[in-house]
Amino acid sequence: MELAVILLLPLAGTLVLAIWGARPSAPEVNAAFSLGTLLAATALTVRVISGGPVLAWGGQFFIDSFNVFLVALTALVGFTTALFSRPYMRIERDHGRVTARRMRLYHSMYQMFMATMLVALLTNNMGIMWVALEAATLSTVLLVSLYRTAASLEAAWKYFILCGVGIAQALFGTILLYFAAEKILGAEGMNALLWTELNGGKSELEPQGLSLAFVFLLVGYGTKVGLVPLHNWLPDAHAEGPTPISAVLSGLLLNVALYIVIRCKVLVEGSLNSNLPGQILMAFGLLSVVVAAFFLWRQRDIKRLFAYSSIEHMGIVTFAFGMGGPVANFAALLHMTVHSLTKSAIFFAVGHAVQKSGTQVMDEIRGLVVRNPTIGWGLMLGTIAILGVPPFGVFASEFLILTTAMQQQPWAAPILLGALAVAFAAIIGRVQPMVFGEPGGKRLAHQPALVPVFVHLAAVLVLGLYIPPYLADWYRQAAQLIGATP
Amino acid sequence: MLSTALTSQLVNLCAAVLLLLAFAMLAQRRTVALVDLFTAQGVALAISTLVVALNTGHGHMYYSAALTFALKVCALPWILRRLIRRLDVQWEAESRLDITATMIIGLLVVIFAFGLAEPISALATTITRATLGIALAIVLLSFLMMITRRKAISQVIGFLAMENGLFFAASSATYGMPMLIEFGIALDVLVAVFVLGVFFFQIREQFDSLDLHNLESLRDK
Amino acid sequence: MIVAATNQLLELALALLAAPLLLGWVNKCRAWLQNRSAPSIWLPYRNLHKLFHKDAVLADNASLLFRAAPYVVFGSMVVAAAIIPSVGTALPSAYVADAIALVGLFATARVFMSLAAMDIGTAFGTLGARREMMIGFLAEPALLMVIFTASLIASSTSLVAISTAFVTRELAIYPSLAFAAIAFMLVLLAENARIPVDNPATHLELTMIHEAMLLEYSARHLALMEWAAALKLFNYAAIGIALFVPWGIARGDAGYVELLAGAPILALKLLSFGAGLALIETLSAKLRIFRAPEFLATAFLFAVLGMLVHLLLGS
Question: Is residue C314 one of the residues assigned to a domain?
Fold first, then answer.
């Protein structure tokens, strides 16, 4: 029941907003649909936490504590972003950057994007997962090019082509998976691609076929995660699209893609009886962290800066999942959560800061805290949080990951620590003058939406100080599911 | 019901033709001719799927063949031709394309693909298992084609040809993916072409041309 | 044994005599297709006859090589004709050399022809020789690849064995052989100076290759060179038939009856080959000389693809 609501509500929202999306009240309708999804997701979460994993609709949908946590997170950030986009898009409208028709497209595709991500998270079928993630790309391509500027068109084209090609590799991986599974699970029907079935019979799956499949799946979905060297589309798409879209791309889509990679990793690791997939993930993760940290120094555009920061954090999470083991998995899940919340909060603050200053170039944004203290402090606190300064949740997860790395992969810990230090210096050096320098800019026509920023940051702060026991249990369950080969 | 030996020969023939068409695409400079080659690929794909359907008698393979025919021989080429006409780029051609070098890289790519697929093919139980290597080769060749092209429409055709290769892998090596998923993939492809169609007009409006060298300004300085 | 000897002699005689006829037939077909009044099919014979009865003129600085070249070229073509099965597969001399040696024979002829063309030192001779070597160096690997593909299928490099294998085995679709056949056709066009690579009917200096090398020859030398060119075309046709359409060839254990039956079948194949060649030449346009490498690269591509397809698909 909750499942049907979660899946159908955003689809209904797509249709409704495709018709009425240009009306003045459309942003509220958008937020209402997102709220409905969030409520249903909460109900589903409660059910799964209390009653264990659920198989629904002939086994085509499968919810366990791993994906239900991401569903809840997606619905939550989806809702707060919808709240943020109300004033944000109104201001964009007033500035004449979007027309009524584009507002309709924006609202409709926003709901579509939510729907596709939720399908990708909830489905049990590796094929449907692929279809849903490809649909997620398609629904956001036209959003990235919403402003129709030369740069946004280029970003959208890159996004489409690179992700399209990447995800085609993932389809080949899926075919190979099917090919390997068919012998054990039978060719007829849909069962051969169900994750639960594959997971049940993974020890019998052909290791050679599966390792090749994993390479293709990792390259394919890894493109969407933004792992270096497949990350080229990510900074452009984040920088040129509307800020709410940057927030959901960074906070949610990357998580969804990584979730799929981890599902594949569980299968392949079970079949190979070795840590090879984990090692590949560690290598990709570490490379992403290091490369992104150094690229941070070269950014002039504020949204690109935080896009690279997303690559860095996805690298950290990938590395942690690669290490495996209950602690690392736990920390990775926690990091996914806090990164999602913090990064979307930062993008909210950045969005308004950019609107105030009329530019995304960091050298021209100055003195936010004087003109609009809430935006300034929001950005500053968000930055401190994402950099892993102690009271915030990012610190907790990064600390866990680092200590685990010291135990399990001592060679990697200094590299990781060094990259984090480089990133810290790069970001703080850029953000500090923007917040505290000499003021400039203009007043905004609408009251900026800063409640989501502080709600997110408060949640991150709470997670840093104290993880409620039921939440910790939940993470622990999920970490168990992902499996442990420490 | 077709006999097994004949099926495997016919599917192999289709595989060879598909590979040849992939090379022809790689060497083709004119965008309009690429659409024709793409259509021919669709025909070969539909035939091979139909042959497998006739041999195995799997109901869903018939639907799959019909779907391929409808989508890749009728719908997509029609849309592409219409787009080319509406965008008025019938005479567009790639001027900077070193065909001989591309071909040699293409041959190396094929050898690589065959080597990669060899151990996997050996595990297959289907009679047409050897085609997996060819499917992979088509995917990689289409990828190569996308890399070497500078025109937006040619790149998209490369993208679609890549999907053809994937579909061939699914239909010949595994007797087709489940029907629902094939529908999903087909829908995605169709939507992708529509989205791109819209997108082409946006690009043209902005730059007055569909040449992708306009789209190379975003770099990390 | 006697049958085999008969076969050998028959084939040699046939090759020597029918080669000019094949050329005449191709020219006639071309004329028909181009709506011209056709020359007599016997014209090549008359030409040879005329040339043999003229006095040879040699350049002052012509070396021995220049005089020897026509005999070497003609000789290699005759040897080649002796080892290609056309009427029957019972060829005693076929055991002397396999298909790879055959490619070597063609190469020998090419090298001597080019050296002789450069020997006099005229501009045209050098130009033709250089172009000929360029074509040859691109066409040879393609031809070898074609032969390898067929050899892999028949598991032998002997033309006789390949033909026998193809005739005796069950009929099946071989995509690899189809690719190889296309590649072979392209090589044939390039190696025999046909359109689209060269035009045998013109002396246009910008484009000619083969004719440029013969400009300094006269009388019996020219006759031998022309005859050798006709033989080369005949040999290529025979190789094509032996590799790709060997059906109807008299087997190794055949008697006189089969041999006699084999000849008309071969004639039929050659007639249709000639008509097909004329058709291709009529339909295609001459390529610029700089596009010739692209043309031959296509041939090479087809040949390699054929081999790869065979290695992967086993067919």
Answer: no
- pLDDT over 80 at B174, yes or no: no
Give dist(CA A94, CA A92) in Å, integer: 5
- Does the beta carbon of C115 lie under 8 angstroms from any beta carbon of chain B? no
Specify if B221 maps to a domain. Answer: no
pTM of the model: 0.85
Q: Which ipTM score applies to this complex?
A: 0.91
Which has the higher per-residue pLDDT, A230 or A481?
Answer: A230
Q: Is the pLDDT of residue A485 over 70?
A: no
How many domains, in total, are found in chain B? 1
Residue C22 structural domain? 2-137+159-169+208-284
> Does a structural domain hold residue C89?
yes
Q: Closest partner residue to B120 among A128, A176, A188, by Cβ?
A: A176
Query: Residues 101..140 of B with a Cβ closer than 8 Å to C: which?
Result: 103, 106-107, 110-111, 114, 118, 121, 130-131, 133-134
- Convert the pLDDT of each residue in A389-399 to its tens digit: 888 889 999 99
| Domain definitions of chain A by residue range | 289-486
In a domain, B17, yes or no: yes
Residue B220 lies in a domain: no
Which residues are bridge partners to A62 per DSSP? A55
Residues of A in contact with B152 (CB under 8 A): 157
CB contact under 8 A, A157 and B218: no
Please tell me which of the candidates B15, B103, B134 has its beta carbon nearest to residue C297. B103
Residues of B in contact with A164 (CB under 8 A): 159, 192
Closest to C304 (Cα-Cα) out of B114, A452, A443 = B114
Contact of C295 with chain B, judged by CB distance below 8 Å, is answered with no
Lookup result for tokens 């090019």: A145
Burial of C111 (0-12, 13-18, 19+ CB in 10 A): middle
In a domain, C188, yes or no: no
d(CA C12, CA C18): 10
Q: Does B20 touch chain C (CB under 8 A)?
A: yes
| Nearest neighbour of C301 by CB, restricted to B12, B13, B103 | B103
B22-42 pLDDT tens trace:
988 988 888 888 999 999 999
What distances in angstroms separate CA C286 from CA A197, C124, C281, C296, one per listed residue?
62, 20, 9, 14
Which residue, chain included where needed, has tokens 């200094």?
Answer: A414
Rounded Cα–Cα distance for residues A123 and B184 (Å)? 13
Average pLDDT, stretch A294-315? Answer: 92
Return the bridge partners of B30, or none: B93
**Does C200 fall in a domain?**
no
Query: Could you tell me the mean pLDDT of each successive run of 10 residues in chain C, 315 residues long?
Result: 76 84 86 84 86 82 85 90 79 77 88 86 83 86 89 82 78 81 88 77 71 80 87 89 79 71 82 87 78 83 86 71
A149-169: average pLDDT: 89
Q: State the average pLDDT over residues A39-57.
A: 87
How far is Cα A401 from Cα A266, in angstroms, rounded to an integer? 19
Q: Is the peptide bond before A229 cis (omega within 30 degrees of 0)?
A: yes
Asked if the structure places residue B211 within a domain, the reply is yes
Q: What is the pLDDT of residue C292?
A: 80
**Interface check C293 vs B, CB under 8 A:** yes
Range of the domain at B57: 4-215
